[in-house]
Design a protein that fits this description.
Blueprint: H1 5-30, H2 35-47, E1 50-51, H3 52-59, H4 63-75, E2 79-83, E3 91-95, H5 97-117, H6 123-142
Antiparallel strand pairs: 1-3, 2-3
Helix pairs in contact: 1-5, 2-3
């Protein structure tokens, strides 16, 4: 019986994803943060002010859980909430100066950990992986 390459690709992708997630979680933990805290701050750090809904969609945290995380980050003065003057239902999140300083310190170190994970992988191979995973992701998204 021949090997099922689709199944093997799936299993290897899932194992690699789990391993990458664990390494990045441990790195973030070293900086005194949880992955959800870091994900929200990182989105605000790179993309600027966003609504809670935009953040929730981009970091894949449910709207129920995200409120708890935002509350904690706000208490630590790492982000602030502001009401949208045009739409009372919308609330904006913005990183504070303290949050920016925190990310200025943490993010370059975190990026280095990620760079080390992909050390020795050619740019061409990285581009191929990106293309393939995008295709699979789009296909999986359309199955919902």
């Amino acid at each position: 019986m021949s090997e099922n390459l689709s199944l093997k690709t799936f299993v290897i992708t899932m194992k690699a994803s789990k391993a990458l997630e664990e390494v990045t979680k441990q790195d973030i933990k070293k900086h005194g943060m949880r992955a959800s805290d870091f994900a929200i701050l990182e989105a605000l750090y790179h993309k600027g002010r966003q609504t809670i809904r935009e953040i929730s969609e981009s970091v894949l945290i449910s709207t129920g859980s995200i409120t708890y995380v935002i509350d904690k980050l706000e208490k630590k003065e790492l982000l602030i909430r502001t009401n949208c003057p045009d739409d009372r239902r919308a609330v904006y999140l913005e990183i504070t100066d303290r949050g920016k300083q925190t990310m200025d310190d943490i993010f370059p170190k975190h990026q280095l950990v990620i760079e080390e994970l992909f050390e020795g992988i050619s740019e061409s191979d990285k581009e191929t992986v990106i293309e393939v995973l995008k295709k699979v992701g789009h296909k999986a998204s359309n199955k919902e």
